Amino acid sequence: APSGTGMGLPAAVRDRVAAVHRGSTLRERLRLYDGWAARYEQDVAALEYRAPHLAAASLAFAFPAPRAEARLLDVACGTGLVAWELHRRGFRCLHGVDGSAGMLERARSTGLYQELRLCVLGKEPLPAPAEHYDAVTVVGALGEGQVPSSVLPELLRVTKPGGFLCLTTRSNPSNLRYKAELEAALGQLERSGAWQKLLAQEVEYWERATSEEESTQGTGYISGVVYIYQKCPVPHLEEG
To answer: Which intervals hold domain Methyltransferase (predicted)?
Structure first.
């Protein structure tokens, strides 16, 4: 198990993370992300943030070969951390969207994306036609005060029948209400036959906690979960 506690994080890192999670309005939060973009990758490295690695590994495990031709949409792509992990696993056709222009600028500099667009999910539809992507990822953005769980049908809309959706959320105390809402929405879509669940993996050491209250049983870390769903193929209508 990783050692040390989140309390050992540099105060500046703790403050930046707390500010983004505390941001009162979406506009304010996006402004904070714009300002955070230059330091984001150092800060999440200090947090030992494992979601991009865990999500990409889970998606690659579920995804049938070949991967190079598969078209993926990285929603709330940030600076491109998920793209690095997907690229390492053979995915080459990556599109990204994010609500922060500052984050997109960093993502563009990686050269990993074939297309990047500004899009505030939850406020506007994804800039893509229906059934366009073989897989859609939303890593790190499904959380309290960020992307609402009401976006799930929009994620499904742009996914091809038989395509995969890889989603993550945190299981720390301040996100439990959101997680319960998200899981209710996930379950409802499964019962309606929109998709089937392939994986829901709880991960204990997701990232370092920024406060004692958020820490899982005093470990200094918070936990999280990776979900993989497969969109159900459209049923053929009977003739006659």
So the answer is: 73-163
